[in-house]
């Protein structure tokens, strides 16, 4: 950013002695650039950038992480108030239980898991989804008996518009290969530790134990994995392109909700 | 003295009207505002002289922050002794109102007798008003050099050389040092010396940005140090290279340099020729601290488990390992040895993996395992050498080594 041409140095009128030597000294008014504005004297024009972060992402988790630059920080609060769902890919491992529900924690117990099948897992997952659906309806503070509520529910737009405990709107089993499995979770107002706890509870429900190996955010409201920039792409050009691409989508989403 | 103060303060502002004021004694008859300035002239002219001294008021030398240069006293000397020969170009120091030159009483009375001093509220004619240029005063204290750069030739010339003043002013006392030096007298000699040593012209700017303190060094001391290096059989081009890459090198005294060279010879156990080669390639070793180097060697030996001859080989190939951070070294080694399964002798052959980023190694290794091509044993087929793993750019790595496209690589990275 600093390499972009800055403003030209101020000019100043200085009276310099004229180059003709000897007796008559005339004054020549010349425009001389003020040295104080010279880039080597002034230093780089921009030294700091204001960067704000969107929804939190753990150290152990990975995935889409939204950042706001400068004036974009105001949009971040608006996006937070939209309460859009986030989609995670959660990987788990049967047979172990640790104290912090992830595979790097202290081992608490080991169990067998041969009795687990895919149908059992999907049954448990459906139970979780049903229970959370009730919580969703309750926290969205809409009177269920009205016509508007029915229309919103048909479109799938019922969601809590204020503070609420973590709610899972949809769960799906992506892969199942004993002892590993992978789930896709759509959720609201959650933390990654809550998701790890869910994995642990799934293990308990299946009369075994499970730890979470991977939590990866695929989608955060409007932003998906395709828009995400890799570490190798953290340069000015890609960031500018990414901002430009997402601008329109963010605007339409905000107008729709607020 | 109060009258004098008023007059001096009036043209304490930068009077840049460089007029060759003809100053015979008859000028007294002119208007009163110009009189005060010319009041100096009779002092400067010895009574016996009738020549005309072109009196040029040039851009004044900047008054160093917080201290007043000895020029003030020089001015006093010249005024109070009318017999001294004034040079034709007098660089007049503009003293601030608070520090009046202690002019002799004679001049004061001279002035009082002849013409009553003009007051600041007197009306002056239009031409006189146009001729006075009053500019804001320079600040006495400032945290940047921006305020002074326009008024100081030294700073202006340094900027034209390429010295980055915004970085220099962040260093301790460097800004103050630059202000007190004179380009013609001090800086020029040292610049010529540096050019003799072999620093390129376009390198002088960055060199001085990193090491402005060299301008305060004594020229003989610098020359003894270069002579010492030559006596240790470092060639001229090599000395030039070392000095350019490690600007602080010439600040060290001869004993210190000697101690450091001896330290490296003893610690690493390499021959004299190899130590010299090492130091030429990484002159930062001589200017940096020595304890981290010792600790790094200990880490290599004890924690990483390298033998002494292996350490010598590694250090000779990549001396940067001595200045790397221990945590990073340990993490990289841990990943390479335990997770990728690379034995010590392979790491000795390719020590440049220690210099690369752990993230890079990890991503590429995971991609290769995903494709099933992670083979680092030279005896097996489809072997991938470690230096190719880390040093190739992404596109070449993908097409040659992994035999996959870059989009696949990026998609894979997004799944990590």
TrEMBL record, chain A:
Sequence similarity: Belongs to the pseudouridine synthase TruB family.
SUPFAM superfamilies (UniProt xref): Pseudouridine synthase (SSF55120)
Q: Which organism is it from?
A: Nyctibius grandis
Q: Which InterPro entries match?
A: PsdUridine_synth_cat_dom_sf (IPR020103), PsdUridine_synth_N (IPR002501), Trub2 (IPR039048)
Cite the PANTHER family for this sequence.
PSEUDOURIDINE SYNTHASE-RELATED, PSEUDOURIDYLATE SYNTHASE TRUB2, MITOCHONDRIAL
**Official protein name in the record:** TRUB2 synthase
Annotated GO biological processes are: pseudouridine synthesis; RNA processing
Q: Which Gene3D superfamilies match?
A: Pseudouridine synthase (3.30.2350.10)
Q: Name one Pfam family in it.
A: TruB_N
| Molecular function via GO | pseudouridine synthase activity; RNA binding
Task: Pinpoint the Pseudouridine synthase II N-terminal domain residues.
Answer: 48-191
UniProtKB/TrEMBL annotation, chain B:
Q: Which SMART domains match?
A: Mterf
Main subcellular location of this protein, as a coarse class: mitochondrion
Protein localization: Mitochondrion
Gene3D superfamilies xref list? Transcription termination factor 3, mitochondrial (1.25.70.10)
Instruction: List GO molecular-function terms, semicolon-separated.
Output: nucleic acid binding
Per UniProt, the keywords (alphabetical) are: Mitochondrion, Signal, Transcription, Transcription regulation, Transit peptide
Any single GO CC term annotated in Swiss-Prot or TrEMBL for this entry: mitochondrion
Specify the domain of life of the species encoding this protein. Eukaryota
The signal peptide annotation in the UniProt record is: 1-20
| Keyword field contains Cell membrane | no
- Please give the biological process terms from Gene Ontology that the record holds: mitochondrial ribosome assembly; mitochondrial transcription; regulation of DNA-templated transcription
Regarding protein family, the annotation reads: Belongs to the mTERF family.
Query: PANTHER family per the record?
Result: CGI-12 PROTEIN-RELATED, TRANSCRIPTION TERMINATION FACTOR 3, MITOCHONDRIAL
Kindly provide the name given to this protein in its UniProt entry. Answer: Transcription termination factor 3, mitochondrial
The organism encoding this protein is Nyctibius grandis
């Amino acid at each position: 950013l600093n390499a972009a041409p800055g403003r030209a140095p101020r000019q100043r009128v200085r009276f310099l002695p004229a180059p003709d030597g000897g007796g008559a000294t005339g004054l020549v008014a010349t425009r001389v650039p003020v040295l104080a504005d010279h880039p080597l004297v002034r230093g780089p024009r921009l030294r700091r950038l204001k960067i704000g972060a969107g929804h939190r992402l753990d150290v152990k988790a990975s995935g889409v992480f939204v950042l706001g630059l400068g004036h974009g920080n105001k949009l971040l609060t608006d996006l937070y108030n939209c309460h859009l769902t986030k989609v995670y890919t959660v990987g788990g491992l049967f047979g172990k239980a640790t104290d912090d529900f992830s595979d790097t924690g202290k081992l608490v117990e080991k169990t067998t898991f041969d009795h687990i099948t895919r149908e059992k897992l999907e049954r448990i997952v459906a139970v979780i989804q049903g229970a959370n659906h009730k919580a969703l309806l309750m926290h969205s503070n809409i009177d269920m008996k009205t016509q508007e509520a029915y229309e919103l529910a048909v479109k799938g737009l019922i969601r809590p518009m204020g503070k609420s405990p973590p709610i899972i709107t949809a769960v799906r089993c992506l892969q199942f290969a004993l002892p590993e499995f992978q789930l896709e979770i759509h959720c609201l107002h959650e933390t990654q530790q809550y998701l790890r706890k869910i994995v642990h509870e799934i293990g308990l429900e299946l009369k075994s134990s499970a730890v979470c190996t991977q939590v990866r955010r695929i989608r955060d409201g409007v932003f998906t994995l395709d828009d995400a920039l890799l570490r190798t792409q953290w340069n000015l050009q890609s960031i500018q392109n990414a901002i430009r691409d997402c601008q329109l989508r963010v605007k339409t989403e905000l107008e729709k909700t607020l | 003295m109060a009258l004098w103060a008023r007059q001096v303060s009036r043209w304490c502002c930068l009077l840049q009207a460089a007029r060759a004021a003809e100053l015979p004694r008859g000028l007294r008859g002119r208007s009163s505002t110009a009189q005060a300035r010319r009041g100096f002239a009779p002092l400067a002219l010895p009574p016996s002289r009738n020549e005309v001294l072109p009196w040029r008021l040039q851009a004044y030398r900047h008054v160093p922050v917080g201290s007043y240069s000895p020029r003030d006293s020089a001015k006093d000397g010249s005024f109070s002794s009318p017999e001294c020969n004034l040079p034709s170009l007098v660089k007049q120091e503009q003293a601030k109102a608070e520090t009046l030159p202690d002019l002799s009483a004679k001049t004061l009375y001279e002035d009082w007798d002849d013409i009553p001093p003009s007051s600041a509220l007197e009306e002056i004619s239009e031409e006189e008003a146009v001729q006075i240029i009053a500019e804001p005063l320079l600040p006495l204290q400032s945290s940047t050099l921006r305020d002074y750069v326009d008024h100081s030739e030294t700073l202006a010339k340094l900027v034209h050389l390429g010295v980055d003043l915004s970085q220099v002013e962040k260093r301790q006392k460097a800004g103050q040092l630059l202000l007190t030096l004179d380009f013609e007298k001090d800086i020029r000699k040292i610049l010529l010396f540096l050019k003799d040593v072999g620093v390129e012209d376009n390198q002088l700017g960055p060199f001085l940005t990193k090491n402005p303190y060299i301008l305060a060094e004594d020229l003989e001391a610098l020359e003894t140090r270069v002579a010492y290096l030559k006596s240790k059989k470092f060639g001229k081009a090599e000395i030039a290279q070392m000095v350019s890459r490690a600007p602080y090198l010439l600040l060290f005294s001869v004993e210190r340099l000697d101690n450091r060279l001896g330290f490296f010879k003893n610690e690493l156990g390499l021959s004299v020729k190899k130590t010299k080669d090492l130091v030429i390639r990484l002159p930062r070793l001589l200017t940096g601290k020595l304890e981290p180097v010792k600790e790094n060697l200990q880490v290599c030996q004890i924690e990483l488990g390298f033998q002494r001859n292996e350490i010598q080989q590694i250090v000779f190939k990549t001396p940067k390992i001595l200045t790397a951070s221990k945590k990073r070294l340990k993490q990289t080694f841990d990943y390479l040895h335990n997770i990728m399964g690379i034995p010590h002798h392979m790491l000795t052959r390719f020590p440049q993996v220690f210099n690369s980023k752990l993230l890079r190694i990890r991503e590429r290794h995971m991609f290769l395992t995903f494709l099933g091509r992670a083979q680092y044993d030279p005896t097996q087929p489809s072997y991938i050498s470690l230096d190719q793993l880390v040093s190739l750019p992404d596109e070449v790595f993908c097409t040659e080594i992994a035999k996959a496209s870059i989009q696949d690589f990026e998609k894979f990275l997004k799944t990590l």
